[in-house]
């Protein structure tokens, strides 16, 4: 598949091509205006592509769009429409639109209310809910029919830390038997949730990797950071060891970057003992995702 979308002169999505399988939780990352939401809208049939198409579990989103939509649950950006409906009425309405009837529709709505912790607000109209609760109603309608494919546009945006945790475990629980695509600006969410990450900028795919692969691109990968008394003196000693490529002192933290393939941690902890330095912190760095994100998307315009 390959998807493109132009808005007048703007190329929002530029020949984006990928496939996702069951058990994958794919995270879309990218600066504001990168084309994440536009891609999701095309996958879910809310927007017609200007070029190309995509296949969802064997169903073409253009020629077989009804079947494709049936197996998808979609959380759009923002709040659900139908703000004047109560949470329960809205979810029962969605259940009926999904083909469930009578008691079954009521049961599906009740189950979704339960899963998204909406028990305190079922009779409240959606427009009077707080932002996070609106988000949870949106998620409830997305998962209500137990779809094979979930496309969630910033699912934890606006949620409090407890609900973020709940929604992430909900996504993790569902991930073994479903295909899940989420977009997010929270890089820690990618590490917590996704087993695959795509970085998009200006409508184009820049990186398609595992979170571990992504973090390994960081220049901090396998670096060692210390907080130590007299950091300047320690820095000059550490910069002499053959395993160190570079030493940086920033905001009271000393970071030693490894020479190609070198292992630093043991060498440095030995030096700490040998010289008797007074160290209050010593850690091996996994890498920093925010730095990788900046490095990869640097030079892209953003809109
Ligand atoms: N209906 C529209 N008409 C014109 N331009 C649009 C429309 N929808 C989106 N765009 C443009 O397409 C580009 C991609 O927007 P999109 O919403 O997909 O970005 P995004 O990656 O989801 O960004 P964000 O992180 O801010 O949510 C932007 O330049 C945006 O202004
Ligand atoms: Mg968006």
Which strand-content bin applies to the residues? 15-25%
Query: Could you say which overall geometry the principal axes of the C-alpha atoms support?
Result: elongated
Topology order in helix (H) and strand (E) letters: EEEHEEEHEHHHEHEHEEHEHEEHEH
Average of the residue pLDDT scores: 93
Main pleated-sheet profile:
6 strands, mixed
Bound molecules: adenosine-5'-triphosphate, magnesium ion
Second-tier CATH architecture of the largest domain: 3-Layer(aba) Sandwich
Poorly predicted regions: none
Helix content: 25-40%
Radius of gyration: 24 Å
How many DSSP helices?
11
CATH fold-type name of the largest domain? Rossmann fold
Our count of domains comes out at: 2
What's the count of strands?
A: 15
Distance between the termini: 26 Å
User: What is the CATH top level name of the largest domain?
Assistant: Alpha Beta
Q: Mind telling me the CATH superfamily name of the largest domain?
A: P-loop containing nucleotide triphosphate hydrolases
Secondary structure class reads alpha/beta
Task: Draw up the topology in text.
Blueprint: E1 2-7, E2 10-16, E3 25-29, H1 36-43, E4 51-53, E5 55-56, E6 59-60, H2 65-70, E7 72-75, H3 87-97, H4 102-115, H5 131-143, E8 149-153, H6 161-174, E9 179-183, H7 187-193, E10 196-201, E11 204-209, H8 211-215, E12 224-228, H9 231-238, E13 244-250, E14 253-258, H10 265-275, E15 279-284, H11 289-297
Parallel strand pairs: 3-9, 3-10, 7-8, 8-9
Antiparallel strand pairs: 1-2, 1-4, 5-6, 10-11, 12-14, 12-15, 13-14
């Amino acid at each position: 598949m390959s998807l493109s979308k132009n808005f007048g002169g703007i190329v929002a999505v530029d020949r984006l091509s990928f496939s996702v399988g069951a058990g994958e939780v794919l995270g879309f990352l990218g600066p504001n205006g990168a084309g994440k939401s536009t891609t999701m809208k095309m996958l879910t049939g809310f927007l017609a592509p200007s070029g190309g198409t995509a296949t969802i579990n064997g169903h073409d989103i253009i020629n077989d769009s009804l079947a494709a939509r049936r197996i998808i649950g979609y959380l759009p950006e923002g709040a659900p429409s139908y703000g004047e409906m109560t949470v329960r009425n809205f979810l029962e309405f969605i259940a009926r639109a999904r083909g469930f009837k009578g008691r079954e529709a009521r049961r599906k709505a009740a189950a979704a209310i339960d899963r998204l912790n909406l028990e305190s607000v079922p009779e409240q109209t959606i427009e009077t809910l707080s932002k996070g609760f609106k988000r949870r109603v949106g998620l409830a309608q997305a998962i209500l029919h137990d779809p094979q494919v979930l496309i969630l546009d910033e699912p934890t945006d606006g949620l409090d830390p407890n609900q973020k945790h709940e929604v992430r475990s909900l996504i993790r629980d569902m991930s073994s038997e479903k295909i899940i695509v989420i977009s997010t600006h929270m890089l820690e969410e990618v590490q917590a949730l996704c087993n695959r990450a795509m970085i998009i900028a200006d409508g184009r795919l820049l990186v398609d990797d595992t979170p571990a692969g992504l973090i390994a691109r960081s220049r901090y990968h396998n670096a060692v950071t210390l907080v130590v008394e007299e950091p300047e003196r320690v820095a000059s000693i550490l910069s002499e060891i053959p395993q160190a490529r570079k030493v940086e002192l920033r905001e009271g933290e000393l970071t030693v970057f490894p020479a190609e393939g070198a292992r630093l941690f043991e060498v440095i902890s030995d030096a700490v003992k040998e010289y008797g330095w007074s160290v209050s912190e010593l850690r091996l760095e996994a890498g920093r995702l925010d730095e990788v994100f900046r490095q990869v998307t640097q030079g892209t315009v953003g809109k």
